[in-house]
Amino acid sequence: MAEAARPVRCIVKLGGAAITNKGELESIDEGSLRSSCAQLRQAMSDNAAPEKVMGMDWSRRPGESADPVVDTEGFADMDGPGLDTNFVVVHGAGSFGHFQASRSGAHKGGLHTTLVKAGFVATRISVTSLNQEVVRALAREGIPSIGLSPFACGWSTRQRKLVSANASQIIQSLHAGFVPVLHGDGVLDELLDCTILSGDVIIRHLAQLLSPKYVVFLTDVHGVYDRPPTDPNAVLLREIEVDDNGGWSIVKPALQGNKRGVETSVAAHDTTGGMETKILEAAAIARLGVDVYITKVDTEHSLRALKGDVNTSSDDWLGTVICRSAK
């Protein structure tokens, strides 16, 4: 397998709950998605001052009658986009895909039944439609993005464990100066026929393959809490360390009376494990020596995380850092 041209700077997870309205079927949170893409551009930019954005979405928007305006002369005069494009983006499904998978049981497998086969098709239609919208939003910020579906790349599982994860198209895209954009997807499973592969699992395997400098999870809350953040007594966990055996401990703040440290809950329609999966996958990434930053989308903290500008010894950044123990 070919190696990436340069070390990948960052793998970004756009959480489904952060960029969609999870309570409303197939509804995008346009504000959060737009802000995330704008902040990604800022993090990639090699200039301190904002420059003119040359949009790359040249297709007609739904409901628009006029053809898109394309500044071909402006592009012809550019030496390049002026961006460090050595980023990979992975987004969750949010209000896309989970409904179709849970209603049909596609996440449990069984393609021999017509219901599961139809649900698998419906799930992939839904998640790939969201992927296109994320790619378009990035392109409108002048970020040269390419949507890549794990199913189409040949990724597959065995009893829901990833067994095939060919990254050649991802690496070739990075070589060519594109930002690959992957997503949680329906994939084939050697024993179950099919299942749903979560974006969090995808990120862990990409971190193993690409060795990024850091990984950022953008969510709808400020980080990992000791209990569901809707609880008024919930405490934000600012730093979690992971040892070589995969065990993890809360460094900041010190908690009393909670041996495990974190309580998790999973929504009924979530077919990919929710926060528990996110924590486990983030811990697996940290074991590789890659720091993981989890913070809220559309904040000053998310911009700093995307830039890699996080200091664990300071309290002015709001979020959770998961890192490998120095011991």
Observed structural traits:
single chain; 327 residues; alpha/beta; Carbamate kinase; 4-stranded mixed sheet; 15 strands; 31% helix
CATH architecture: 3-Layer(aba) Sandwich
Largest sheet: 9 strands, mixed
Q: What is the percentage of strand-forming residues?
A: 15-25%
CATH topology: Carbamate kinase
Give the low-pLDDT segments.
264-273
Instruction: Give me the strand/helix succession.
Output: EHHHEHHEEEHEEEHEEEEEHEHE
SSE class: alpha/beta
Distance between the termini: 33 Å
Radius of gyration: 20 Å
* Average pLDDT reading: 88
> Which oligomeric state applies?
single chain
Please work out how many helical segments DSSP would assign: 9
> Any idea what the CATH superfamily is called?
Acetylglutamate kinase-like
Q: How do the strands line up in the largest sheet? A: 3-6-2-1-9-14-15-12-13
Q: Kindly state the number of beta strands.
A: 15
Helix coverage percent of residues?
Answer: 25-40%
Tally the structural domains: 1
Approximate shape: globular
